[in-house]
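ARCHIVE CARD
CATEGORY: sequence design from structure
SOURCE FIELD: tokenized fold
FIELD CONTENT:
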């Protein structure tokens, strides 16, 4: 496993990490999570991603139980949480967003659910147009000075909003954000590669990127319809099925996936591994967060690094053309 600095910080995180959106508490219980974490630790993964909003806080409880029973030294791995959506199905106005109150309380609640004394990484899960950015920066800075959060960052903010947070922090000698958590995969490149380019240049912003397989689309398994038990088939994720498969855009993307599958086959590998490895080619990626609902998926995805040599300039050009 290669370790990359999280942006301009000194924190070394594994280039592959493991997250829990959709899966934990829905498809993965704490026993299976424990098995998966064991596989991750064995592979050298040292960062596990979570959020208050995943399964209304239950995902963090599953992760906390699995980490507790594995009993690895706390200084050997990093965990994250994210604040914004709230940790209940129908949060009250004070239980969501990026106010000082919610950021502070959500941090304490996440630590309790995860069973940790501090969060290594803490993200603002979305921008909050109803809270001034200075209040959010101050709240995060205070948590950092209290030792409850080590590195704070954003997720899916605009480049403009992120720059504003950096500039406010720098001007007032506060702790600036260290990282963003954006989507990045073969089908979704624009925001990462174009909009964020000045932030990498100017602030050396780190990134923990999500959905390297576009929620499973980049495995090729949706080409003949929605497989039973797959993410797009789950109750409550009908919106995702629409985005991934049913909509015109979904169909257009599936057309491109079909072409990508051929490239992977010609290289005698799986599209899953190729797609994950491709994300690692970008030096502005600090860590690619993997997702898996089954042990076999995780086992396959952990081998992605092995196919990096297949990604020659010629192959990269073919992928980009698609
Ligand atoms: P992926 O795009 O890799 O999708 C993972 C899903 O694809 C799995 O749960 C599984 O779903 C399917 N899959 C994975 N590997 C295989 C395989 N080898 N063969 C067949 N199917 C496979 O990642 P995620 O969308 O899960 O994102 C990763 C992490 O990123 C999340 O857990 C979360 O921590 C973070 N994230 C952050 C967001 C943010 O807003 N900050 C948003 C989304 C994710 P199934 O078996 O159900 O079909």
């Amino acid at each position: 496993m290669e370790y990359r600095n999280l942006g301009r910080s000194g924190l070394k995180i594994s280039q592959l990490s493991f997250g829990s959106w959709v899966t934990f508490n829905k498809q993965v219980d704490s026993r299976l999570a424990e098995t998966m974490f064991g596989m991750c630790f064995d592979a050298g993964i040292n960062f596990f991603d979570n959020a208050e909003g995943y399964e209304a806080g239950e995902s963090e409880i599953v992760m906390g139980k699995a980490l507790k029973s594995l009993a690895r030294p706390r200084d050997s791995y990093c965990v994250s949480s994210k604040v914004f959506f709230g940790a209940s199905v129908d949060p009250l106005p004070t239980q969501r967003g990026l106010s000082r109150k919610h950021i502070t309380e959500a941090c304490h609640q996440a630590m309790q659910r995860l069973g940790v004394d501090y969060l290594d990484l803490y993200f603002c899960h979305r921008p909050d147009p109803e809270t001034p950015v200075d209040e959010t920066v101050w709240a995060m800075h205070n948590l950092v000075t209290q030792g409850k959060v080590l590195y704070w960052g954003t997720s899916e903010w605009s480049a403009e909003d992120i720059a504003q947070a950096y500039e406010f922090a720098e001007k007032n000698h506060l702790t600036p954000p260290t990282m963003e958590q954006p989507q990045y995969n073969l089908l979704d490149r624009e925001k990462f590669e174009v909009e964020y380019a000045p932030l990498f240049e100017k602030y050396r912003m780190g990134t923990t990127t999500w959905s390297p397989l576009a929620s499973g689309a980049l495995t090729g398994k949706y080409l003949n319809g929605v497989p039973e038990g797959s993410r797009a088939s789950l109750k409550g994720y009908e919106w995702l099925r629409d985005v991934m498969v049913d909509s015109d855009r979904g169909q257009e993307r599936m057309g491109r996936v079909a072409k990508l599958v051929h490239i992977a086959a010609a290289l005698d590998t799986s599209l899953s591994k190729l797609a994950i490895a491709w994300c690692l080619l970008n030096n502005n990626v600090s860590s690619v967060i993997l997702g898996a609902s089954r042990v076999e998926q995780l086992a396959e995805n952990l081998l992605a690094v092995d196919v990096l040599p297949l990604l020659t300039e010629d192959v990269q050009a073919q992928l980009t053309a698609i």
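CARD ANNOTATION: The mean pLDDT is 98. Residues 3-216+270-311 form a domain with the TIM Barrel fold (CATH 3.20.20.100).
SHELF: design records, drawer C
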